[in-house]
Amino acid sequence: MAVRSRNFYLVPYLLWIALFVIAPIVLIVYYSFFDVEGNFTFDNYAKFFTPVYLRMTLNSFWYALLITFFSLLVAYPTAYLLTKTKHKQLWLLLIILPSWINLLLKTYAFIGLFGTYGFTNAVLDTLGFGRHQILFTDFSFVFVSVYIFIPFMVLPIFNALEEMNPTLIYAARDLGASGWTTFRRVVFPLTISGVTSGCQAVFIPALSLFMITRLIAGNRVITLGTAIEQHFLVTQDWGMGATIAVFLIIAMAVTMLFTGNREVRTKR
Amino acid sequence: MKQLIRLFASVFIAAFALMYVTSYLNSSQGYSGGNTLTIYNWGDYIDPELIAAFEEETGIKVIYQTFDSNEAMMTKIEQGGTTFDISVPSEYAISKMKEDNLLLPIDHSKLPNLTHIDERFMNLSFDPNNEYSIPYFWGTVGIVYNAELLDGKAPTSWNDLWDPALKNQILLVDGAREVIGFGLNSLHYSLNDTDEAHLQEAKSKLAALTPNIKAIVGDEIKMLLANEEAAVGVVWSGDASEIMGENEKLDYVVPEEGSNLWFDNMVIPKTARNIEGAYAFMNFMLDPEHAAQNAEYVGYSTPNKDALALLPEDISGDERFYPSPELTEKLEVYDNLGKKMLAHYNELFLEFKMHRK
């Protein structure tokens, strides 16, 4: 009886996985073998290896890497300082708070902030730097993306830092390690799991960003996400859209595998 | 186990209760099968007062839903989940929906007000004899410019966009047919051209425009131009009239090489239930007074000649939105190029977007 009821509790989970994880992936792979007119073909895959899509892939990876790097650069010190503050839960809440607001709204706000006659330029102007084009540049794209992803980076790092046993730091200091050595040899290796899961949480969605590329980068940055959106909504070339999605899934699996292994190694 | 069953049961009970409440609320407000009309139209594309007037006149309750692209609308009608009685697709979408058997033929004898429509807008290539569609609005694609930011210069042709003085000053609407279309037009080719050599020529010409382009955006283009974020924009005429209403420094021109002439027509999709109601609504909207009121509210060009006569002179005499016959000659309607060619246009557009400054 006990075994049977345990299996019974598994049913919703298995159903969920089958319906919302496996079935969509199978459908995507299936669609990727059809052209616009519904004929079976491998052309979509051949097309992916043409310079246009390869450059797009390279672009996506490059920007995703930049976004992840800058998020980490901001998030690690933030998380570290958070663990030292008095009301850390409150501060953490304040950092997570913006992620409760709709993404589109935040992005629209940046159009206003970064515009030629927006707030940022008004400040620059009064300080005597003159007006510059901020909107529709690489800078604004990376900046806004980093802003949006920071909570996802801070949270796992904060948790990893919290879990760390503080006596290890005292031990390191007692044994004569300098502040920097303690951080490099003790703190950072112990929180690497937080860093990798943070990087995964940022890098993978950053690969397929699409809305920000239009609203903030004015379609001057074209990523795989943009191409998928266009193929599904405008061209109705579902085959090509699905093919790009297949490559994104592969890329994500590789990323997970790569970062996952490091985590295991450091745990030992 | 018991808890789980109890949980499921309470969810079911709650769901049925809610279903009962909605159906009760709907019927108490008069929303039931026979006397409702579901209209599926572009956002902000009708004077809401006209809907109220129609409800009062006929006693039919109108359910009004909106879409923001032909493709999204077609997908929803194809799936057939909702019963739309009237929709307002653009011309190329109409010919595609016809091919896919998504439309019902229209009986002209049930539309006495159809005589008010200008002959020019009837019997066009996308729908011969208006078998499936009735004109609603029409317009052009052109250039919106801010004369003040351009030091008094005013573009008159597509080729003016390539002027080096416009460096980083142009906003384009994010549409493959519009952008490739004006690329072809600037070379004096048809915007329905399918000749590969011509398309490649247009593509390399567009590549040379890259330094002048500030951004390629969607609906935000209206807000950005009104805020003087850029001096020049390529937009649809209706958007232009809306932007000009917000910022008086802006002006609109239909380029002399020719441009796109588009139509949004009313159709009855296959999903329709209240077909009589759909005819009543179409006839209501074709009435010159109602059409004039709608045109004044929406700002697009009306195909209704008797409504045009009712409009004030400063609207009906405005050559920017009701171009002269000579210019109209040079305007072209988008042909349905077929899925394959459309995919090719999009491919070219994607390559164009990938050019870095």
TrEMBL record, chain A:
Swiss-Prot/TrEMBL GO biological process terms: transmembrane transport
Q: How does it sit in the membrane?
A: Multi-pass membrane protein
Matching entries from Gene3D superfamilies are given as: MetI-like
Q: Which UniProt keywords apply?
A: Cell membrane, Membrane, Transmembrane, Transmembrane helix, Transport
The protein's location, in the record's own words, is: Cell membrane
Q: Name one GO cellular component term.
A: plasma membrane
* SUPFAM superfamilies, alphabetized: MetI-like
The record lists the membrane-crossing segments as 12-33, 61-83, 90-119, 139-161, 186-212, 238-258
Decide whether keyword Transmembrane helix is in the record: yes
ABC transmembrane type-1 domain mapped to chain residues? 57-259
Which InterPro entries does UniProt cross-reference here? MetI-like, MetI-like_sf
Record-stated family: Belongs to the binding-protein-dependent transport system permease family. CysTW subfamily.
Protein name in the entry: Spermidine/putrescine transport system permease protein
Tell me which species this is from. Answer: Paenibacillus phyllosphaerae
From TrEMBL, chain B:
Q: Cite a GO CC annotation.
A: periplasmic space
Q: Which top-rank group of organisms is this from?
A: Bacteria
Q: Where does the record say this protein resides? A: Periplasm
Per UniProt, spermidine binds at 92
Question: Can you cite a GO biological process for this protein?
Answer: polyamine transport
Recite the UniProt keywords alphabetically: Periplasm, Signal, Transport
* Gene Ontology terms, MF aspect: polyamine binding
PANTHER family in the record, alphabetically?
A: SPERMIDINE/PUTRESCINE-BINDING PERIPLASMIC PROTEIN (PTHR30222), SPERMIDINE_PUTRESCINE-BINDING PERIPLASMIC PROTEIN (PTHR30222:SF17)
Q: What is this protein called?
A: Spermidine/putrescine transport system substrate-binding protein
**What phylogenetic lineage does the species belong to?**
Bacteria, Bacillati, Bacillota, Bacilli, Bacillales
